Fold arginine--tRNA ligase.
Amino acid sequence: MTPVELSRTVLCAVRRAVDAGQLVAPVPERAQVSPPGPGGRGDYATNVALQLARPAGRPPRQVAEILRPHLADAEGVSRVDITGPGFLNITLDGAERERALVAEILRRAERYGFVDEPTGELVRLHTPREVRAVVTGQTVARLLRSQGVLVRTSCEGEPDPAWALSLGAAVDAHGSPGAAAPASAGLRPVPAPEDPTPLGRDAGRWALLHPAAHDRPRIGAEHLAQRESNPLFRVRYAHARARALSRNAAALGFTGAPLQGGGEAGPLLDALAAHPRTLAAAARHRAPDRLARQLVTTADALLAVQHTVLPLGDEKPSAAHRSRLALAEAAGTVLAGGLSLLGIDAPEHL
């Protein structure tokens, strides 16, 4: 059940409550369904009870209590909880959760976790003239834009041209932002102890963005190492493996499909489901390190199950293989999108 399908299921629940005389209110044309916010639970949440409270003449939580059993009876729904003033939090059953999540990621592609409509909020990010601060500000701007926020970046002085050449670091303007400009606080990470530009764009940006802002980054050759101890290598290698699995499956004559029953990939599903919440939190807290760490979690979960995706020996491709391939492709898509937000390349081959 994708969010679009679940939205229709929510509307059907409203219609059943209205038809049963439990709720006197017009059935809305659409019901918003999205990943739960802070304090939420389950796979998806809807604010339809808050939307119906005024026309129904009832408190939102009472409306939610009326809708809850109608929604809990729907096929593919495992549990419905009520949180906050009346949000309905929906947990899908295991097989349906996997199918819905993978289908949604493949449909949204690298915009999975993005907000579709602008919020109308304007944020001005002003940083010191220091390489880590400039790279962090640029990345935070990308994260905020993914959440529908309009952003302008500036720096206290003109950035070193080498930062743009080697790291792709840039700002919209430089100089004082002016007293009237609502500059964002908190974009003063611990400065880089040495010049990261010799590491190149990908390793240099990762070295600056992977540590939390209050931690001193390490600028060294370990970020270039092609081995498992390097988290950047694991993330990029996992993405390359996802793409290789698609190529190898095509050679065997099958493609991925988000079907029920791929099986036994709970940590990977959890990591993929957490991606929208991670993007929102990373933008809200101005913390690109949250995204970097989540990408490592996703990569490690994919690498742990990637050996189960393709048939072994004379085994014929089955529905389970197609489902596992779709899951691996979804993971590769999330890794590519996350790396892009960090300004790092996601290679097809590694």
User: Anything to note?
Assistant: The domain at 231-342 is CATH 1.10.730.10 (Isoleucyl-tRNA Synthetase; Domain 1). The chain has three domains: 3-92, 122-199, 231-342. The radius of gyration is 23 Å. The longest strand covers residues 77-83.
